[in-house]
Amino acid sequence: MGDRVTDWGPDIIQIDKDSSIPIYAQIVERVQTLVQVGNLKPGDRLPSIRSVAEHLRIDYNTVSRAYHDLDMAGTIRTARGVGTHIANGVDEEVIQRTRQTKLESTVSTVIADLLELGYSDDEISAAFERIISDVERKD
Amino acid sequence: MGDRVTDWGPDIIQIDKDSSIPIYAQIVERVQTLVQVGNLKPGDRLPSIRSVAEHLRIDYNTVSRAYHDLDMAGTIRTARGVGTHIANGVDEEVIQRTRQTKLESTVSTVIADLLELGYSDDEISAAFERIISDVERKD
Amino acid sequence: MGDRVTDWGPDIIQIDKDSSIPIYAQIVERVQTLVQVGNLKPGDRLPSIRSVAEHLRIDYNTVSRAYHDLDMAGTIRTARGVGTHIANGVDEEVIQRTRQTKLESTVSTVIADLLELGYSDDEISAAFERIISDVERKD
Amino acid sequence: MGDRVTDWGPDIIQIDKDSSIPIYAQIVERVQTLVQVGNLKPGDRLPSIRSVAEHLRIDYNTVSRAYHDLDMAGTIRTARGVGTHIANGVDEEVIQRTRQTKLESTVSTVIADLLELGYSDDEISAAFERIISDVERKD
DNA sequence: GTGGTCTAGACCACG
DNA sequence: GTGGTCTAGACCACG
Questions:
Q1: How far apart are CA C67 and CA C84, in angstroms?
Q2: Torsion sign over Cα A16, A17, A19, A23
Q3: Would you call B47 helix, strand, or coil by DSSP?
Q4: What is the pTM of this model?
Q5: Distance (Å, rounded) from C-alpha A85 to C-alpha A104?
Q6: Which bases of chain F are contacted by protein, using any atom under 7 A from a CB?
Q7: C124, D107 Cβ separation under 8 angstroms
Q8: With contact defined as beta carbons under 8 Å apart, do D86 and D38 qualify?
Q9: What is the distance between the alpha carbons of residues C41 and A61, in angstroms, rounded to a whole number?
Q10: Smallest Cα–Cα separation from A7: which of A61, A35, A60, A44?
Q11: Among chain B residues 18 through 77, which have CB within 7 angstroms of nucleic chain F?
């Protein structure tokens, strides 16, 4: 763990410039999810604002605002001259619990949305099984 | 078909005022989904702009903008002094196909997102089956 | 092509505030005609919403609405913080065809209107030839 | 001359309910043109508001407003119990002059518009001659 | 009552 | 500076 500097190419963070969701909000959302799910660990170093801006081809100020919001939220810690790191305070057990919660809430939400649109549970099940088994076949 | 007036309480259209997705876009998106999926049929009457504004506690102009965009997109037809109705032109067969496509793309997207966050296909399957069987039990 | 900034004084876009045709619709119509006819090319930059509003002495929101509709129609592309440009996608061949169609439909319509008002084809021809030869003399 | 009651079916007056030009304004415009051009003569009786509304399938009040505006403009005279007639005051000579003026201004305007859109006078002439000779052939 | 347009002004996001 | 959204309120057209 420790000091991996993930260099955020379009692989780690995809942003959609045409989305009505502000770019800075997309970044904040994404980083928080990666932390909650355990893909970014406390102490991991984040790439510099300038490098993120360059890789994602967006403005410095936009990234700066995202980092600022993440700092406010306690997700990251910025220190002058040291760089930016994922904050401590989220211990492994919490992460595991959050990881599970996140999975369930995501699945629950999508199922609820589909039911509300009038799909039957059988239709949903069938679609799900077809698609997940496609994925398994690829492994 | 015909003249069912869907009364859009916060039930039919939920909007999230804090979302970064513009309110008018949320309304447009929602109505288009309901039409695509067959929950709103050609000829169905939509509630008046003023009543939607009141129910959702948003400004007349915001709803008006949503209706205007839906009109431009061909989803609805408005008539001075008369009201607003779902436009013709989407035949039943297309709806059935879209309905299926929409289901699959929704499920695919959520699965892809979860895999990308590092969940295994087994974890996803397990969560899905647990939740969908809860739903079936309620029937 | 490229980046010509058309500065829309009252020269390029004339709007008639007293017309019963909405101002925003006049702007939409005008820009679409200029594109269809080839006077505005893909990539050309449009003047900013604020500058159009100022030149035409109308409200920012009215121009904004016109640009929004043009964007939805695929005629232009707007980008946050960057500006507005004529969209790609209309190839030269289509423009030439549209150009010709537009000319013919305009002439046909005016002739039909005049005939319906009781002018004879000889009267119309005579008037047309007199006026067009005035124009040619000026060249 | 005198008392022809032209019963305004869609033949005499075409209105476009989807136009952004108000229906009442379309009626006013049309009647004034017919008078200016000599197709409606002083003393000619106009159909009743009720009958126009019925024939054009529009609201009584809309026609009423058009008649009111025409009255204000001096184009028609409404007298209780007598009906509505084209007003006097436009003598034959004026009509002939207006008729000619109207023709020329219509043709001039369309030519100017087309020139401004970048059509050459040769293109315009060619299109005009092709179309007008089509018309003559039909006679 | 139903839809539509416009202005004025506040505030946001991006560069 | 450039685009975008929202509210509040006035006023119009149609039925």
A1: 8
A2: positive
A3: coil
A4: 0.85
A5: 28
A6: 1-10, 12-15
A7: yes
A8: no
A9: 32
A10: A44
A11: 22-25, 58-62, 65
- Residue C121's Cβ-side half-sphere holds a number of Cα atoms within 13 Å equal to 14
Which of A32-36, B134-138, C100-104 ranks highest by mean pLDDT? C100-104
* C-alpha–C-alpha distance, residues B88 and A125, integer Å: 32
Which range is least confidently modeled, A53-57, A90-94, B20-24, B125-129?
A: A90-94
What pLDDT is attached to residue B98?
87
Please state whether strand E lies within 7 Å of residue C14 at its CB atom: no
Sign, CA dihedral C127-C128-C131-C133, equals: negative
> Mind listing the pLDDT tens digit for each residue in B25-68?
999 999 999 998 888 889 999 999 999 999 999 999 999 999 99
- Angle at CA of residue B29, ends B24 and B30, nearest 5°: 100
The answer to whether D69 and D32 are in contact (CB under 8 A) is: no
CA C3 to chain centre: 19
**3-class SS at D79?**
strand
pLDDT in tens, C80-125: 889 999 998 767 888 888 899 999 999 999 999 999 888 999 999 9
Q: Nearest CA to CA, how far is B133 from chain C (Å)?
A: 42
- Work out the mean pLDDT of chain C and round it to a whole number: 89
* Chains adjacent to D (≥3 CB pairs closer than 8 angstroms): B, C
The burial class, CB within 10 Å (0-12 / 13-18 / 19+), for C68 is buried
First-to-last C-alpha distance (Å) of chain D: 27
How do beta strands C83-86 and A45-46 pair?
unpaired
Q: Test D125 with C114 for CB contact under 8 angstroms.
A: no
Q: Which residues of B touch D17 (CB under 8 A)?
A: 79-80
A with B: touching (≥3 Cβ pairs within 8 Å): yes
What DSSP string runs through B88-102?
A: S---HHHHHHHHHHH
Measured N-to-C along each axis, helices A23-36 and A92-116 cross at an angle, to the nearest 10 degrees, of 120
Which of B25, A129, C133, C8 is closest to D121 using CA atoms? C133
**CB-based burial label for A71 (10 Å; 0-12, 13-18, 19+):** middle
Alpha helices in chain A (DSSP H): 23-36, 49-56, 60-72, 92-116, 121-138
Edge-to-edge, what's the strand order for the sheet holding A83-86?
Answer: A45-46, A83-86, A76-79
Distance CA B84 to C1' E6 in A: 22
pLDDT for position B1 = 46
Which chain D residues touch B81 with a CB distance below 8 Å? 59
Asked whether residue A62 carries a pLDDT value surpassing 90, the answer given is yes
Chains D and C touch (3+ CB pairs under 8 A): yes
Taking the Cβ of residue B29 and every Cβ of chain A, the question of whether any pair is shorter than 8 Å is answered with no
By the 8 A CB rule, do D40 and D34 touch?
A: yes
